[in-house]
């Protein structure tokens, strides 16, 4: 499936891209999964499942990660 943005086709974001970008953002801040989990009030296994794509995030969860990692939501949807 493709989406259109200003008349141009856009690729669909896959859970793999979101998961990879979550991990990259966390590591860029020097946080462990345990530290990130504590700051979000979640468990380390929650962070792990999110970063491996085993758990899909709703917009509110993605927003919490964006605030924690000081990134716009669009950062997590990017392919690179």
Structure commentary:
The chain has 80 residues and is mainly alpha-helical. The protein has one domain (14-77): Orthogonal Bundle (434 Repressor (Amino-terminal Domain)), CATH 1.10.260.40. It is built from five helices and two strands, in the order ββααααα. The protein has helices spanning 15-28, 33-40, 44-52, 59-69, 73-77, and strands spanning 2-5, 8-11. It has a two-stranded antiparallel sheet. A hairpin with a 2-residue loop joins β1 and β2 (8-11). α2 (33-40) crosses α3 (44-52). It is globular. It starts with a strand and ends with a helix. The model is unreliable at 1-5 (pLDDT under 50).
Q: C-alpha Rg, in Å?
A: 13 Å
Low-confidence stretches: 1-5
Distance between the termini: 19 Å
CATH superfamily: lambda repressor-like DNA-binding domains
In terms of structural class, how would the helical and strand content be classed?
mainly alpha
Helix content estimate: 55-70%
Q: What is the mean predicted local confidence, pLDDT?
A: 87
In this structure, how is the largest beta sheet organized? 2 strands, antiparallel
User: Largest sheet, order of strands side by side?
Assistant: 1-2
Total of DSSP H or I helical runs spanning 4+ residues? 5
CATH fold-level name: 434 Repressor (Amino-terminal Domain)
Structural domains: how many: 1
Please report the first level of CATH classification, the CATH class. Answer: Mainly Alpha
Percent strand equals 5-15%
Under the CATH scheme, which architecture would be assigned? Answer: Orthogonal Bundle
Give, in order, the helices and strands. Answer: EEHHHHH
Query: What is the 3D shape?
Result: globular
User: How many E strands?
Assistant: 2
């Amino acid at each position: 499936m493709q989406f259109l943005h200003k008349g141009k086709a856009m690729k669909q974001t896959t859970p793999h891209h979101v998961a990879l970008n979550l991990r990259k953002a966390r590591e860029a801040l020097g946080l462990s999964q345990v530290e990130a989990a504590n700051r979000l009030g979640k468990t380390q296994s929650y962070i792990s499942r999110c970063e491996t794509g085993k758990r899909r995030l709703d917009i509110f969860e993605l927003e919490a990660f964006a605030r924690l990692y000081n990134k716009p939501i669009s950062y997590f949807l990017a392919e690179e």
